[in-house]
Structure formats: C-alpha cells, structure tokens
Specification:
- By secondary structure, the chain is α/β, with parallel strands linked by helices.
- Helix content is about 40%, strand content about 20%.
- It has eight helices and nine strands.
- The chain has a six-stranded mixed beta sheet with strand order 5-6-7-3-8-9, sandwiched between helices. The chain has a three-stranded antiparallel beta sheet with strand order 2-1-4, with helices on one face.
- The structure holds adenosine-5'-diphosphate.
- Adenosine-5'-diphosphate binds next to helix 1.
- The site of adenosine-5'-diphosphate has 10 residues, from helix 1.
C-alpha cells in the first residue's frame, strides 16, 4: 500500500534516517518506537508528505488517503465544534441518500467518545483549550476514515475513558495505522507490529511492543554470543598463524588459515543507542592485519 524505499533524511548534515526500507500493508497496525530524538515524528511527517527526504522515496498506491494527527495542533477558525466536525462531511462530496444522517450519528458517537458533552457541540472551537482542540482534530481525522492513519502521541491529551474509547475504535477500524505513543499498554492493545528506529536504522518486528522487547533482547543475546564465538575462533587462528608462520613444516596450514580468515564473513551486533545507559557492548571486529 505504501512503500518506503531507501529513505534518508538529514538535518544540517546530521543523518536522522539512513537508508530505510519497509512496506505498510493494508490493516497493518504499526507501533513506531525509539528514544526521544530518534526520528519517529520525522518519519511520520515524511509519510504524511509534509517533509521531504534527502534521498529515497515513498510510493503510495493509486488514490490512497493518508490522515495525519501531528503532535502540535494548528490554528482554529471561527466555527463551532459541530460546524467544524461537519466540515469533514461537506468536503466528502457524497450523494449517498441518508449519508448525512449516518454521518451525524457517527459524528455524535465520536465526539462523545472523545469526552465532549452535548452542550459543547455549539460552542466555538476557540473556547476550547489545546488538549480539547486536539480531540476535535482527532475526531475529524477518524471521521475522514483514511486508508492510513498516522497518529503522533494521540493519548497525550486524553483522559482514561477517552483512551479506552480510542483503543476500541482503533481495534475495530480497518485503516492501516502507524502510531507513536509513550503509553505501552495502549501500544500493546492497539498494534501488532513494531518498528524501532535506532541511530538512523530501523528494526522491524511482527509483534506488539512487549513481545518486541523480549524478541529484541533475545536477538541481541544471540548476536552477542555468535559474535563472541567468532572472536574466539579468530583469536585462536591468529595465534596459530603467529606461532607457526616461520616454520617451514607448517607453511601449508598457516597459508590455509590465513585464507580462512580472509574469507570469513565477520559477524556484527546490531548497533544500539546506549547514550543514556552505562552498558558496554563488544568493540568492532579487528581488521586482520597480518
Ligand atoms: P522523535 O519523534 O523520535 O523524538 P524527531 O523526529 O522529533 O524525533 O527528531 C529527530 C531529530 O531530528 C531530533 O534530533 C530533532 O532535534 C531533529 N529535528 C527534527 N526536526 C528538525 C528540523 N526541522 N530541523 C532540524 N532538526 C530537526
């Protein structure tokens, strides 16, 4: 549905995303995770088309619609809550008989679900605080029912009941979803795939957040074990070469081990952003300098 190919973006020569490639399929529910500043919002903005990549591209299928809820809200004009949300219907150019009544019923459910009361419907949008205006934008976005929903921290301004409502809404919704949220329970309940951004790279797991954390840890441990075994083997081979390199009777074996090392595919451990941890990981493999 949406294909991200070799996408890179840098700000002032600092790479934020570095050659990333992935697909968004219909009904995918993707949690986008990573540390603060990792590039989550940047990737959403690129997907929404409000940011241009340094290189690579994003291709979208045909007349695919994308709805983006940014973290920071834009202006509000002079409309009331009801008028503002109804504008979604007016812009849809539908000729469906009874469509308006259906829209209004759905609109009421959505606005109430997001915590408004009926008496709020005719209040001007400008009277609402930033958090409530964000709910209005969220209501409009959900009612537009785009093929792909991009939500950046949608629970930030919601109370527990509205979070629960949004959770149920998203679970029953057929749009593909890319979600950034610090709320782990919300991520677990709504998403089924996790894409982690770390130091410009992405790691894509077919699992919700909590399971992703376990899988990532297991993968890391496996990599470290494989890496350490290989390092041990390299060390032993180097020692052998060093010991026998001037011994004529071992010349053939020494040559064969040198070749073996040359041909060896060096294992690596996925880079991790440990900038706020004091853990240390194995150093980069030595280049064979013999
Ligand atoms: P996240 O959403 O994961 O916290 P962001 O995508 O907001 O990360 O930011 C990624 C990095 O890019 C941050 O270091 C941020 O300061 C930087 N950045 C974001 N937007 C801009 C911009 N318009 N100009 C320069 N740097 C930016």
């Amino acid at each position: 549905m949406v294909s991200v190919e070799h996408l890179s973006i840098e700000y002032s020569s600092r790479p934020i995303l570095d050659d990333i490639t992935f697909l968004i399929n219909p009904r995918d529910r993707i949690a986008l995770v990573g540390k603060n500043g990792a590039g989550k919002t940047t990737l959403l903005r690129l997907l929404a088309g409000v940011e241009t990549p340094t290189s690579g591209r994003i291709s979208k299928m045909g007349d695919l619609t994308i709805g983006y809820l940014p973290q920071v809200m834009m202006h509000v004009d002079g409309k009331t809550l009801r008028e503002d949300v109804m504008s979604v219907y007016s812009s849809q150019l539908t000729t469906d008989i009874g469509g308006e009544a259906r829209f209004i019923a759905e609109m009421d459910r959505t606005i109430i679900g997001l915590g408004f009361e009926r008496k709020d419907f005719d209040r001007p949008c400008s009277e609402f605080s930033g958090g409530w205006r964000m709910r209005i934008e969220l209501a409009k976005l959900l009612l537009k029912d785009p093929d792909v929903l991009l939500l950046d921290e949608p629970t930030n301004h919601l109370d527990i009941e509205s979070i629960q409502w949004l959770e149920d809404f998203l679970k029953n919704n057929s749009s593909a979803l890319v979600l950034v949220s610090h709320d782990r329970a919300f991520l677990d309940n709504v998403t089924t795939r996790t894409i982690e951004i770390t130091l410009g790279r992405i790691y894509d797991y077919n699992a919700p957040y909590s399971q992703f954390k376990i899988l990532r840890q297991e993968r890391h441990e496996q990599q470290v074990r494989a890496y350490q075994n290989q390092q041990k083997m390299i060390q032993e081979t180097e020692d052998f070469i060093e010991r026998f390199r001037y011994k004529a009777t071992k010349a053939v074996q020494v040559q064969s081990r040198i070749k073996q090392l040359e041909k060896l595919e060096r294992l690596e451990v996925d880079i991790e952003d440990n900038s706020r941890l004091s853990l240390r990981f194995p150093p980069a493999p030595r280049s064979g300098d013999f």
